[in-house]
Amino acid sequence: MVLKVFFPACCSLAESGLLVGRWIPEQNSAVILAVVHFPFVPGQVKQYLAEVHHVTQVEVSVLGSWTNSKQAKEENLGRFLEDLSTIFSHDPWIQLSRKQGSKFWSCSTIWKHPSGDEGDETTLVYYDQRKVMLSQLHPPLDSEVAAASSLDRKVENASRLMAMFNTVSQSKVLFMKDRYDEGPIKLTHWQSEGVEASIIVELMKQASVPACLLVTFLLSLVSRVCQSRALTFWPLSFIWSKLSTCQQLRHRLQHLQVISSPKKAPDQSQLMRKANIFVSILLDVTLGILLMSWLYRKNRIGHLANALIPMADHVAQQLQDLLQWLMGVPAGLKMNRALDQVLGRFFLYHIHLWISYIHLMSPFIEMILWYVGLSACLGLTVALSILSDIIALLTFHIYCFYVYGARLYCLKIYGLSSLWRLFRGKKWNVLRQRVDSCSYDLDQLFIGTLLFTILLFLLPTTALYYLVFTLLRLLVVLVQGVIHLLVDLINSLPFYSVLLRLCRSYRLASGVKFRVLEQEAGKPLRLLMQINPLSYGGVMQAYRLPTYSCYPKDSWGSLCKKLFVGELIYPWKHKGEKQD
Amino acid sequence: MPSVQLDQTPRQRWQKVLYKKQPFADNYVDQSFLEKLRKNVHARKYLYWAVVFESGVMIQQLCSVCVFVVIWWYMDMGLLAPQWLFGAGLVSSLIGYVFFDAIDSGAGRNESGRTRWADLKSSVVFVAFTYGFSPVLKTLTESISTDTIYAMSAFMLLGHLIFYDYGANAAIVSSTLSLNMAIFASVCLASRLPRSLHAFVMVTFAIQIFALWPMLQKKLKAQTPHCYVVITFLSAVSALVGLLTISSVGAVLFALLLVSISCLCPYCLIRLQLFKNNIHGPWDEAEIKEDLSKFLM
Amino acid sequence: MACRRGGNHKHCLSTTSPSISNCHKLPSCSSRTHNICMVSDFFYPNMGGVESHIYQLSQCLIERGHKVIIITHAYEDRKGIRYLTNGLKVYYLPLRVMYNQSTATTLFHSMPLLRYIFVRERVTIVHAHSSFSAMAHDALFHAKTMQLRTVFTDHSLFGFADVSSVLTNKLLTVSLCDTNHIICVSYTSKENTVLRATLDPKIVSVIPNAVDPTDFTPDPSRRDNSTITIVVVSRLVYRKGIDLLSGIIPDLCQKYPNLHFIVGGEGPKRIVLEEVRERYQLHDRVRLLGALEHQDVRNVLVQGHIFLNTSLTEAFCMAIVEAASCGLQVVSTKVGGIPEVLPDNLIILCDPSVKSLCNGLEKAISHLKSGSLLSPEIIHSQVKTFYTWRNVAERTEKVYDRVAGEIVLPMGKRLDRLISHCGPVTGCIFALLSVISFLFLMFLRWLTPDYLIDAAIDATGPYGAWTQQYFRKKRETLNSNS
Predict the structure, then answer these.
(1) Is pLDDT at A84 greater than 90 in this prediction?
(2) Domain C2-16+30-210+391-477: homologous superfamily in CATH
(3) Which of A95, A198, B95, B297 is deepest in the core (most CB within 10 A)?
(4) Distances from the Cα of A503 to the Cαs of A490, A497, A498, in angstroms?
């Protein structure tokens, strides 16, 4: 097996010293984390490494020696380094050395217990320590890989890489050294110069805890009020579940609870989730306030309210015209005159009722709008949800028409289908869930066929009314659907992850690629490891925030079937069905 | 039997068994090959006049359809008052009802266990529903083109003839479907008549001729074959005469159709029977000859 | 696509470096080896007689040193190439299933794929199975166009009475008239096939099915000897005579109070049995087990004393051999090839009627009570010599050897044969189709010439990479044992 040595690129210019890192025996590879410079006291080094091991749970040890010969002759140092291997016993002992001015390094390994595979080759892999430390490796997603065997292989590869990545990221402590702290040991790694603490960051860290506690307390108060008995008895709870504003508010409340919880996020994905939610709320509120500032300038609310009533009137008028048209000979279709008239008058009466209701409301509209507009400061999504609810309320008559039409049509289809079975001398067997043949009496047959004939000839009239109102209803549903989609987008888009991917693409890694560097015969193979950033699709898949609203559960086929048999379709989504 | 032969010549004889290793090639063809082949095991011999007699059912049904259409035409033209038809229908129904029980002197009724009260109820339901719905029927197809209605009725009557239970045991037969198609056609045609009373009478007449009349016929055929022949002949003549008053060409064509069905087709059947070549053998799927439904009663 | 994947496998295989020098040392290697391609719509994961026949036969042929591949259609997500035991390579082709697991056929759309595989795998003999399989007929048709030898195995019986059988028989005539050799599973099946396809009986061989006797061993301790148990294992469909069973159960249960029935299998007729059970209050005595996995069949069989088979038609009844191998007394209807399967002392044959079957069962019960029945071990030792897959493979190999010596009809003669043999109308239509298929083949050869199609590494066969290992290992274990 080839011996792999992962070497941090930043250490290639370091002075001679000891290689500190982790040995991964299963993969026969060594991950070099830092170089310890001369001079050092071996006992101190050992103690330091033990401390690091204790804190990070990574088995850090001295793996070998590193020689960067600036001066041409330093042979005695070389011998000294060889002697070191007896002090820091490690199997295998890696000796890396770099001649001045030469790009190619020589590498030799010494096995304490020769195991027969002595003729090992060594591969040097350079990696960017900072990027590897910060990056989050995403294992390949199952759906991307079809064949089972290659999937196994990929998962295996991923777990190997994962071990390497984890080693680097877990030994953060090794790199976190204060700039002004003069320790007994001098290390070279990506942050050799040390870090400088920032007062502002420290203050914010201190302040965040009480702020979180305060917000949590307020939130729990609010949610307790929401769950109080007075607001959850039957008719109200039903209305809450149907109003998208309530749904959106509840959703946001949950979000706030998540980010204000003072507990530390257990893992990387939870952390990302918190950050995503935070950015999403921030963006939402900003957009909402922008909208509000636009609305309340120049009395736009008043204009809107004045325009609303005539618009509703206009819609009602259009509907009336449509009904008049249907009661005549619409599109040259010859319908059953008597049924046509009955249905038409019924619907006209409804429109009449609706117009009176709107006019009763008209003096209060402006006031309502003014107060409702204030809600935009809670976020754009809340404002949009309210808009969707207002549309639903203003088109209530269309909904009613649709329900009447659909029920009538559904009844007719249902009757026709069972009478059609009777017509063929069959019946539906409920117990066995199938159509059985059956011998009917003569009078049953006669009445059944009579009704079948009548229903069949009346079907086109009902179907036309149903069709027209369904189209109207679909229009409303479409508008509401677009609004919901927008709300959903803001709710679910992981803005923080996307930004991260945009600006610091190495933070979200999906894998690595190796570039072969120049080679010289007899010298070890040199590879440069580069991080493959996660694709945007992958980012979405991994960090998409769950939302309450789901896209219609039905496929297009089943939607069409529902429309055909006259089942009611609803725009609102049921919470239970969503979260799967 | 094969085992006996085996005893006589134990070594050389080929056996039709698989479990024994025999000194023959796998593709060996024995002399006994295909000896169990039988031909035309179930073929039936037909007698000409018997077949002609059986064709009476079809003649009757064709005539019924013809009479129905002729009567409808008379009503549509205003040549026949609905009261007359209703009266005639009522009288003939009563006669038929009495006749129905008289033929087998009530044996069939006792067997089916149907009371006269149930009969009365059924007939009241018929009349009440038809009468109640007749105004609806009248306006039902107003906006639909007359040609469409005619086409639909013709299609339905044809279906009635196709699916009618002539006594053959085939999958296509469905007396329910056949009756329903006839009623559907009658409702379609009735809706074209000038007044709702016409429609009511027409539908009633349809029930009489398509539902009640075949029941009587079946009984007649079983009990008094001679009488049945006479009635078949009479109905053929009446249908022809009725058709003649409307269209002489139609009458001639209809007569030809009747003759070919009752005389020519039986002849062809008997001639073609000679060419029958049906192979049977041990590979046939066995038929279950017992009546297994008794176990589930 | 399948072919590309095959390419990948090739690279995997090449690492195992086949050692050709060993091939002559293979055990039971026959005089010549063939590259055989089994084609059928029916293969695992579908379960049934044809499926296990193909699998077992292929395994035995591989053991005898032939190269065998199997082509079937994709079953849901099982598509592409799979390797089974001993490197048996199975192509699951992406063809649309139409009805009853049989693919839809246009006679041409499968040709590019099949031709590619035949060329890739250097197939010399195409062996199609089951007359219900459209893919098998397609493959025969294309193989003949490509001048390959063809063998067909018929697993089923067909009547001559109704319209559908007239049509299918005509198609069979067309399909088999220029096939080199046909294999039937029983003599009755041979007579049937010869009549259906109007064949020369000389080119029809009879090679019965087999069962693996080690899978079906008796275990009398599992029986409950305080009662008498009758076992029925079959699909619950009309053709298996379940209606007869529904008459037998109440009849016998009334006569014998300690009689029990165990019925294994699933199907549309299950409802009939359930109704009977309900009607006669036999819930404690009639157990309906539902669908059985193949490996569970033996455990059900050994619980019974008598095995009942009520089939109305059967080419070769594997169920009764399995039951007899488990040491049960078999009572069966005398239909199809059943009388040929077991000797008279192991089976009681009855007419397909409730009365006759009840008499047969009563006879078996009285034998059982008087103790004159053979003991299960004796029956087993007798049955296990009858049908073995090795024997089947040996006899099939003879057919292959014979076929390999024959010539495939060239195009002109094939057209003559079609027209003279299949009637003027059908013959001409199919002659035209075969001309089209020939032109299509020319087109495909022009598109991707044969020499551009790289040969697959053999997993099995004389130079097979897997069989080398397999037999080497086997030999080693043999040596170490001895």
Answers:
(1) no
(2) Glycogen Phosphorylase B; (3.40.50.2000)
(3) A95
(4) 21, 10, 9
